[in-house]
């Protein structure tokens, strides 16, 4: 739409189904490049991507033409298919759901640094504690029963 200006920055987090450690070091760079390409093909820009073997963080500059749930669903579906077909991992799947947090432009350097340092960060803090910390700091309303659900159907609270 002409004369439409937006500045939408989202930190998106999603995990491998059952938090399985399937994002192997030798696959990580290619998977991240694939996810970045999938976003670019949908007119979004990945400003940072990182994670560990069981989950991924993205900082996305969103184009207003698509909603976040549609984008995340597409990223997860396309990257799962890619992992099955190109990397011969038929068991690979993403867990249902995701978390998304918005940030102002002034916060981007901090978020980029946080996402880029995931491997170091997770030497000190597990995924459940990380998600809880981010949710609390952001002031997000959440149900701990679902936020901290690592294995489908099994609460970690």
Characteristic key phrases:
single chain, 157 residues, alpha+beta, Alpha-Beta Plaits, four-stranded antiparallel beta sheet, disordered C terminus
Describe what is shown at a glance.
With 157 residues, the chain is α+β, with helices and mostly antiparallel strands.
Give the termini distance in whole angstroms: 46 Å
> Segments where pLDDT lies below 50 for 5+ residues?
151-157
The order of strands across the largest sheet is 2-3-1-4
Q: Output the helix-strand order.
A: EHEEHEHHHH
Instruction: Provide the residue-averaged pLDDT.
Output: 89
Largest sheet: 4 strands, antiparallel
Helical content stands at 40-55%
* Number of helices in the DSSP assignment: 6
CATH topology category name: Alpha-Beta Plaits
CATH class: Alpha Beta
What is the CATH architecture term?
2-Layer Sandwich
> For the CA atoms, what is the radius of gyration?
15 Å
What is the number of beta strands? 4
Task: Report the principal-axis shape.
Answer: globular
Task: Describe the protein's topology.
Blueprint: E1 8-15, H1 25-40, E2 45-52, E3 55-62, H2 68-87, E4 99-103, H3 108-116, H4 118-121, H5 127-138, H6 144-147
Antiparallel strand pairs: 1-3, 1-4, 2-3
Helix pairs in contact: 1-2
Overall description:
- 41% of the residues lie in helices and 18% in strands.
- The protein has 157 residues and is an alpha+beta fold.
- It has a single domain, classed as Alpha-Beta Plaits.
- The longest helix is centred in the middle third of the chain and has 20 residues.
- The C terminus is likely disordered.
């Amino acid at each position: 739409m002409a004369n439409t200006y937006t500045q939408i920055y989202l930190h998106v987090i999603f995990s491998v189904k059952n938090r399985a450690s399937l994002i192997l070091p030798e696959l990580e760079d290619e998977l991240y490049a694939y996810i970045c390409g999938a976003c670019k093909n949908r007119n979004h820009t990945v400003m940072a991507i990182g994670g560990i073997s069981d989950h991924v963080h993205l900082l996305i500059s969103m184009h207003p033409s698509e909603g976040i749930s549609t984008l995340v669903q597409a990223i997860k579906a396309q990257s799962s298919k890619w992992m099955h077909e190109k990397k011969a991992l038929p068991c690979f799947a993403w867990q249902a759901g995701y978390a998304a947090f918005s940030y102002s432009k002034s916060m981007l350097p901090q978020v980029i640094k946080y996402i880029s340092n995931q491997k170091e960060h997770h030497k000190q803090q597990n995924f459940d504690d990380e998600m809880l910390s981010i949710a609390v700091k952001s002031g997000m309303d959440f149900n701990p029963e679902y936020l901290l659900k690592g294995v489908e159907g099994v609460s970690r609270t």
